[in-house]
C-alpha cells in the first residue's frame, strides 16, 4: 500500500430509529458502491440476504435487474466509485437494504484523507447500538421485537428469543463480529492488490 492512497471516512446511520444506530468506517475512495454495500453489511452486521440500492445525486445505483427495475433507470453499483461521487460534490447520499423491511440509511462522507500505510482498509472505526435482525418486520416489527425481548414476562418473549437464537442486546454492537467481517474484506482487498501488482510485474 502506498501513502498516496486516499481514504474516505464515512458515517452510516439507520434512519427513523432513536436512539441512533450508526457506524463509522474508513474506506478507500476507489471503493465502488457495491463494495460499500458489502462493507455496510459487514459492520451493521446484516446477512446480505436481500436487494439493495443507493440513491446519490438523483441517480439510482443497484444491481440492475429488468424484472425489478420497472422502468426506473438503474446504474450498476459496481461501476461507480466513492471518489467519483466526491469529485461531483456528492458527500451525502442514501442506501436502502431489504425492500420488504425497508432499512433506509443516511450516508455522509465526513472527510477524505491520506491513508495510513500501516493499515489495511476498509477499517471499522466506531459506532453505537446493534442493528435489527434480518426479516424482523421493518421499524414496527423491530420495535415489537425489542419490547418482547426486554420483558421476560411478555407473552412473546420465549418466541422471539427462540426465533433470534438467544438474547438480543441493543447496546452491544458486536465489535468482535464486525471486526472479523471487515478484516476479511480488507484482507481480500490486500491480496487482490498484491496479485494485481505481481501480474503487472510479470508483464514487463
From TrEMBL:
<dbReference type="InterPro" id="IPR024047">
    <property type="entry name" value="MM3350-like_sf"/>
</dbReference>
<dbReference type="Pfam" id="PF07929">
    <property type="entry name" value="PRiA4_ORF3"/>
</dbReference>
<protein>
    <recommendedName>
        <fullName>Plasmid pRiA4b Orf3-like domain-containing protein</fullName>
    </recommendedName>
</protein>
<feature type="domain" description="Plasmid pRiA4b Orf3-like">
    <location>
        <begin position="7"/>
        <end position="174"/>
    </location>
</feature>
<dbReference type="InterPro" id="IPR012912">
    <property type="entry name" value="Plasmid_pRiA4b_Orf3-like"/>
</dbReference>
Amino acid at each position: 500500500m502506498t501513502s498516496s492512497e486516499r481514504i474516505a471516512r464515512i458515517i452510516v446511520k439507520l434512519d427513523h430509529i432513536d436512539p441512533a444506530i450508526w457506524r463509522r468506517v474508513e474506506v478507500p475512495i476507489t471503493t465502488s458502491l457495491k463494495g460499500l454495500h458489502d462493507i455496510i453489511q459487514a459492520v451493521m452486521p446484516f446477512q446480505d440476504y436481500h436487494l439493495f440500492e443507493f440513491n446519490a445525486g438523483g441517480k439510482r445505483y443497484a444491481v440492475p435487474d429488468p424484472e425489478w427495475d420497472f422502468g426506473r433507470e438503474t446504474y450498476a453499483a459496481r461501476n461507480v466509485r466513492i471518489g467519483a461521487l466526491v469529485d461531483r460534490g456528492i458527500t451525502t447520499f442514501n442506501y436502502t437494504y431489504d425492500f420488504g423491511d425497508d432499512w433506509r440509511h443516511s450516508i455522509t462522507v465526513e472527510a477524505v484523507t491520506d491513508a495510513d500505510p500501516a493499515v489495511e482498509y476498509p477499517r471499522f472505526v466506531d459506532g453505537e447500538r446493534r442493528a435489527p435482525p434480518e426479516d424482523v418486520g421493518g421499524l414496527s416489527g423491530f420495535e415489537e421485537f425489542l419490547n418482547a425481548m426486554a420483558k421476560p414476562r411478555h407473552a412473546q418473549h420465549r418466541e422471539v428469543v427462540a426465533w433470534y437464537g438467544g438474547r438480543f442486546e441493543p447496546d452491544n454492537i458486536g465489535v468482535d463480529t464486525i471486526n472479523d467481517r471487515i478484516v476479511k474484506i480488507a484482507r481480500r482487498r490486500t491480496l487482490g492488490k498484491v496479485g494485481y501488482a505481481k501480474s503487472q510485474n510479470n508483464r514487463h
